[in-house]
């Protein structure tokens, strides 16, 4: 499958280039960065530390998408909205790992998914998607006397909070409870907040150092706590998930899919 990496000079972009190189059935057919990026003109493989691939980083996605079958996108919400439109026009698989997506960005992905396969997830790892299924199950089993808190820690350069994964886990817990997350989430507590609202799902974000990604869903009840946790140990966890998603998406009907669909976890 011919794959393009957008944001090819980023932390995930470089990891994606490496993973494509290591994956049978996948080939790097293009690498995109924004105009003005200092990476333009560089070989994507050299930048990723795998040696020369002959694929130079360029800033015009149109001719690159026209020759590809899929695009792997871990960039920014604005860039992802733009790439969604272009990928839909080219009818190629769009794997979206970008987090911090607003409702309007999700609406653009939904519109693109009418014409092409879009696979979007705040976390591409097996472990986190399994954790989400477990959080849904635990939340559906316990009553409101168990308070739910989602805690995450990431590296100092992460720009969005709560993380996409924290929101995915919060959404799973809300589904388990049978309530909409939007009406029940408590974010960014500071000052005299008053007592915790019954039924709230709380979020707390820590930032520092080089932490790749750590998440816990805490169910705090009377005199006991259940803590479900996941720790990412290497970014290749996410890039391998993304390449697997692209290969899975090839030949599927247009639509908006999740990593749970790719991993066969949607029904558990
Ligand atoms: N779903 C998942 O499993 C995972 C999701 N992520 C998410 O992926 C995203 C990227 O993370 P990370 O790699 O750490 O971030 P980086 O900032 O390292 O990478 C993003 C890259 O995209 C580039 N970029 C920005 N705008 C454009 C554009 N218009 N066209 C092309 N390239 C562009 C940036 O360039 P420049 O730096 O010059 O601005 C940068 O090189 C984040 O939202 C993060 O949360 C991360 C890991 C796993
Ligand atoms: O920005 C990151 O690094 C990560 N972002 C994703 C998120 O927001 O959850 C996934 C992973 O935790 C790493």
TrEMBL record:
It catalyses: (S)-2,3,4,5-tetrahydrodipicolinate + NADP(+) + H2O = (2S,4S)-4-hydroxy-2,3,4,5-tetrahydrodipicolinate + NADPH + H(+); (S)-2,3,4,5-tetrahydrodipicolinate + NAD(+) + H2O = (2S,4S)-4-hydroxy-2,3,4,5-tetrahydrodipicolinate + NADH + H(+). The keyword Kinase does not apply. The active site is at 154 (proton donor/acceptor), 158 (proton donor). It comes from the Bacteria. Keywords: Amino-acid biosynthesis, Cytoplasm, Diaminopimelate biosynthesis, Lysine biosynthesis, NAD, NADP, Oxidoreductase. Transmembrane segments: none annotated. Residues 127-263 form the Dihydrodipicolinate reductase C-terminal domain. NAD(+) binds at residues 7-12, 97-99, 121-124. One of its GO terms (cellular component) is cytosol. One of its GO terms (molecular function) is 4-hydroxy-tetrahydrodipicolinate reductase. One of its GO terms (biological process) is lysine biosynthetic process via diaminopimelate. Pathway: Amino-acid biosynthesis; L-lysine biosynthesis via DAP pathway; (S)-tetrahydrodipicolinate from L-aspartate: step 4/4. The keyword Cytoplasm applies. It is found in: Cytoplasm. Homotetramer. Catalyzes the conversion of 4-hydroxy-tetrahydrodipicolinate (HTPA) to tetrahydrodipicolinate. This is 4-hydroxy-tetrahydrodipicolinate reductase. It comes from Alsobacter soli. The gene is dapB.
């Amino acid at each position: 499958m011919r794959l393009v990496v957008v944001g090819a000079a980023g932390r995930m972009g470089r990891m994606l280039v490496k993973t494509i190189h290591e994956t049978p059935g996948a080939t790097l057919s293009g690498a995109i960065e924004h105009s003005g990026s200092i990476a333009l003109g560089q070989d994507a493989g050299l930048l990723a530390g795998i040696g020369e691939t002959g694929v130079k980083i360029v800033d015009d996605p149109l001719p690159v998408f026209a020759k590809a079958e899929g695009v792997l996108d871990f960039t920014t919400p604005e860039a992802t909205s733009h790439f969604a439109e272009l990928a839909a026009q080219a009818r190629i698989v769009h794997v979206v790992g970008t987090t911090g997506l607003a409702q309007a960005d999700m609406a653009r992905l939904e519109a693109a998914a009418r014409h092409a396969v879009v696979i979007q997830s705040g976390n591409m790892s097996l472990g986190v998607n399994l954790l989400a299924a477990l959080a849904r199950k635990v939340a559906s089993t316990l009553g409101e006397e168990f308070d739910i808190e989602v805690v995450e820690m990431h590296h100092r350069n992460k720009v969005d909070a709560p993380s996409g994964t924290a929101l995915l886990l919060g959404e799973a817990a809300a589904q388990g409870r049978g309530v909409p997350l939007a009406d029940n989430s408590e974010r960014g507590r500071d000052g005299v907040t008053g007592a915790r609202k019954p039924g709230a799902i709380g979020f707390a974000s820590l930032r520092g150092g080089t932490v790749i990604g750590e998440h816990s869903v805490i169910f705090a009840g009377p005199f006991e706590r259940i803590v479900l946790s996941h720790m990412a140990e290497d970014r290749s966890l996410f890039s391998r998930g993304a390449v697997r998603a692209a290969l899975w998406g090839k030949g599927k009907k247009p639509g908006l899919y999740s990593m749970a669909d790719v991993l066969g976890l949607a029904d558990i």
